[in-house]
Amino acid sequence: MTRKQRRGVLIGTCLVVLGVAVGLVLFAMRDSIVFFYSPSDVAEMSIAPGQRFRLGGLVETGSVVRVEGTTVRFVITDRAKTLAVSYTGVLPDLFREGQGVVAEGTLEPDGIFHADNVLAKHDENYMPPEVAKKLKAQGVWRGDAATAKAPEGKVN
Amino acid sequence: MIAETGHYALILALGVAIVQTLLPLLGARLRDPQLAAVAAPAAQMQFVLVAIAFLALTTAYVTSDFSVENVWQNSHSAKPLLYKISGVWGNHEGSMILWVLILTLFGAAVATFGTNLPRQLKANVLAVQGSIGAAFLLFIITTSNPFIRLSPAPFDGQGLNPVLQDPALAFHPPFLYAGYVGFSMAFSFAVAALIEGRIDAAWARWVRPWTLAAWMCLTLGIAMGSWWAYYELGWGGFWFWDPVENASFMPWLAGTALLHSALVMEKRDALKVWTILLAIITFSLSLMGTFLVRSGVLTSVHAFAVDPARGIFILAIMGVFIGGALALFAWRAPLLGQGGLFAPISREGALVLNNLLLTTACAAVFVGTLYPLALEALTGDKISVGPPFFNLTFAPLIVPLLIAVPFGPLLAWKRGDLAAAAQRLMAAACLALAVIMVLLAFRQRGPWLAPFGIGLGVWLIMGALTEIAYRVKLGQVSPAEMWRRLGSLPRAAYGSALAHAGLGLAVIGIVSTTAWRSEQIIALKPGETADIAGYTLAFKGVVPRQGPNYAERVGLFEVTRGGKAVTELTPSKRDFSVEKSATTEAGIHVSWRGDLYAVLGDPLKDGAYSVRLYFNPLVRLIWLGALVMFFGGAVSLSDRRLRVGAPKRAQAKAAAVFVAK
Predict the structure, then answer these.
(1) Secondary structure in 3-state letters for B416-443
(2) Terminal-to-terminal C-alpha distance of chain A
(3) A interface mutation test: which of B166, B382, B600 has the most A CBs within 10 A?
(4) Do A93 and B92 touch (CB under 8 A)?
(5) Residue B434 CB coordination number (10 Å)
(6) Is the pLDDT higher at B330 or at A143?
């Protein structure tokens, strides 16, 4: 094989691998990314039942109700709109009323958001950045003073 | 007084770092050996000064000096000593000091042990290393000074985030940083080579031990983080494709590629330009990891406290170093020249394939991690890219690499014989196929691809054994001769075989626990039982208990299997009153089959508790595999050290001159 042919093989392999990678990334982008919405976003747009998304906001005070078994219902609010959430499973340690939370799941025809995953951070003043931004945009954010004092928790 | 000493030492270290950057560069340029010789003592001095600062901060933590704001924010007098010490790096400021401490440690190590380095190269390497130190010291002093005093001093501290009060996490950051920062050595060598416009096989020989050490630490650091997340977060998972995890995984992928390409350069003087570029990319990804974790731009369960000023400062550091290095690369790389020739089917060819797949997989992770940021900046849409994306992109790219791994070491340099290598791997392939067949036949649940994943792991382990067997001519020579050969094999051969076998173990662990994990979430009242994976758990109730700095509710579970008592699990929920926080402690029973994992949830109506049970088959192999990889690296490193002592540069140059004539 000449130097040129060898280089051809090398460049050809690179192009094939890169092509496959780009194809995979584009394919995965179409199917497996999850959008983040606040209750107001959900109220504004019509989201098809069964489409996965992340819902973020504050857990409304007094809204957490244990139904049966390990199913729990609560309401997520962004202080403008609210959305009822149903979740079966164990809530994170720092899931508290009045605090920020992100739930991932689908909006079902019954108008309830069925979450299969609920995230709350291991920090009492944690606010998911998306939630903070939305709340700030709506002028109801009061968390800065609290967060500035908060012990910084680094994980990882 | 101690805090002020630390602060003063930091400022002095910054001064020394600036001297270490400028004088040796000038010395190398003017060919003034005295100026160039400043580098080594400066690097040692810088390390000593940063160590003083680090010790000062540690002293403040150990003695609970709450007049130091950083200590007040992150410590508490009731905390166990281990966590007082690990609290030093459990926060932003302290972890930056640790970062710089490790950086200067590497610099000082090169200054002390690199006595056989050519003077000019050494001066340039230490100068570049000094400039990184200067940038980060400036960052610490201006934006994240840990020695700020509070007046009046508070009576007690606010405590450390309780999830961080854990032995695995106490040692996780030092290893992770040693990995991140260790790659700065490869970066400094690369930039120094670009400044000199000259590079050869000896360069690769000097770079490899440092890269290997960094890679080992990063491997262990990532494994510890994953191990911690597994038992502490109570989700029973070992990897979440979380942006912060990805931030440490990308340098690992690039670093693994760098280890292999440096091998080609050392042995065959080829892939020079690529190796230099890879060294720059690896450290750039480490810097990016630091930036992503600290700037608060990411949505992560691991998020760090947000401070935009710090983010912009680190972004500027990244811009200068990555941009500068890449510009230098574009300008000087053409000088480095062509490497040796090799056929596509050869050891070099296999290592090129390794590099291609690793960097592409790394790029896929990069896209998945940064795409949400880019999209939000461009359109304002907020998305999250979760495990499905990474499983769909990363796995198909890495599987061909895993299939190819056993072939690499069996191919000859320059021109290999694929058919012969395949023949030698016949036994390994047969065994892997047999495992796949058996698993397919007995598979009751889980995806049909899973048995192939296990087969892949077996293939990797058997491939590693085949390499050793081939090298000692197993079955072809007398046992005595074989033993002699076993003894005289270079340690690097054992090292790479161990690392590849460790990879196989990890693959088996990952596949089996992902495919065959059992999970149950149920409401249990005291006296009720639950069944999972052949175990029966009898819930005895919940009792309160008092720990050193927390109160906990402990659930008691009696575990039986087939009527025989196995163990008692005591998962608990801990309430940390000082930190106003809570953690979940999982109850884990370890057996050779896998981990039985129980988590106590919240109390429900009528006295029941929500309980989460998992059975994770063979999950320990993941971390065992990482340990074996680390050990393989260590074995290989012990070999290198012997040979690093024999510089070949002069001879190589003489030979080159001879050939040119």
Answers:
(1) CCHHHHHHHCHHHHHHHHHHHHHHHHHC
(2) 50
(3) B382
(4) no
(5) 12
(6) B330
| Pairwise CA distance, residues B642 & B633, whole Å | 15
Tokens, residue A111: 């108008």
Chain A nearest C-alpha distance from B272 (Å): 15
pLDDT given at position A8: 85
B57-74 mean pLDDT: 89
The shortest CB-CB distance from A156 to any of B302, B306, B388 is to: B302
Backbone dihedral region for residue B594 (phi beyond 0: left; psi -120 to 50: alpha; all else: beta):
left
CB B325 within 8 A of CB B191: yes
Kindly state the tokens that stand for B24. 């040796």
Per-residue pLDDT, averaged over B104-122, amounts to 89
Q: Tokens 């005595």 correspond to what residue?
A: B480
B383: closest chain A residue by CA = A35
Q: What is d(CA A11, CA A9) in angstroms, rounded to the nearest whole number?
A: 6
Concatenated DSSP letters for chain A?
Answer: --HHHHHHHHHHHHHHHHHHHHHHHHHHHHHHEEEEE-HHHHHHS-PPTT-EEEEEEEEPTT--EE-STTEEEEEEE-SS-EEEEEEESPPPTT--TTSEEEEEEEE-TTS-EEEEEEE--SSTT---HHHHHHHHHTT----HHHHHHSPP----
**Which of B244, B357, B392 lies at the smallest CB-CB distance from A156?**
B244
User: What does the alpha-carbon distance between residue A93 and residue A33 come to, in Å, rounded to a whole number?
Assistant: 26
pLDDT at residue A151, rounded to an integer: 33
Interface contact B176-A17, CB threshold 8 A: no
- Give the Cα-Cα-Cα angle B70, B75, B81 (nearest 5 degrees): 130
Is A70 close to B579, i.e. CB distance below 8 A?
no
Q: Mean pLDDT in chain B?
A: 87
**pLDDT given at position B304:** 45
User: Whose CA is closest to B560, among B539, B587, B586?
Assistant: B539
**Type of residue at B590:** V
Handedness of CA B461, B465, B470, B474 (dihedral sign): negative
Please report the pLDDT score of residue B644 as a whole number.
52
What is the enclosing helix (H) or strand (E) of B146? none
The answer, yes or no, to whether residue B487 has pLDDT greater than 60, is yes
Residue that is written with structure tokens 């990805």 in the block: B246
Residue A32 — pLDDT band, cuts 50, 70, 90? confident
- Residues of A in Cβ contact (< 8 Å) with B75: none
- The structure tokens listed for B385 are 């890219």
- Contact between B252 and B223 under an 8 Å Cβ cutoff? The reply is no
Helix residue spans in B197-271 (DSSP H): 201-232, 243-268
Distance (Å) of CA B408 to CA A57, B184, B265, B271, B500:
52, 28, 16, 16, 11
By Cβ distance, the residue of B160, B162, B360 closest to A21 is B360
**Chain B residues whose beta carbon lies within 8 Å of the beta carbon of residue A151:** 73-74, 91, 158-161, 579
Write the CA distances from A7 to A85, B257, B343, B414, integer angstroms: 58, 20, 10, 14
| Among candidates A27, A121, A152 on the partner chain, residue whose Cβ is nearest the Cβ of B91 | A152
Torsion angle in degrees (nearest 10) through CA of B323, B327, B329, B335: -170
